Amino acid sequence: MNKLHKVIVHYRQEGRTITHQVPEGENILQFFEMQGEKLPFSCRNGCCTSCAVRIIFGGMDQTAGIGLSKEMQAKGYGLLCISKASEALEVETQDEDEVYEMQFGKYLGQVKSEAGNPFDM
Asked: How confident is the model at residue 121 (pLDDT cuts 50, 70, 90)?
């Protein structure tokens, strides 16, 4: 039998806290969904930031994701859709735009093309 890890999700947008014992190696988002809990997500591939969380305590295996830079991971952020339980974990959901801006905001003003920036029109 797999070791169980206590995973606490503070679902900030809904003002509630959800806790489950997640088997080691299980996908966190999918496990919570199987328990009837709906958490934010979009792509399910670790490419966007809809399911982004800030880690309060513990850790998760998120090696399968490409949507969150190593720098953001080092600052304590993760993506629930691709993360697997690896130890006790407490996280807080984030607003997608908030995490996206932290990760990519510094680059958005630098987007240029020969036709100019389409967002300036």
From this structure: very low
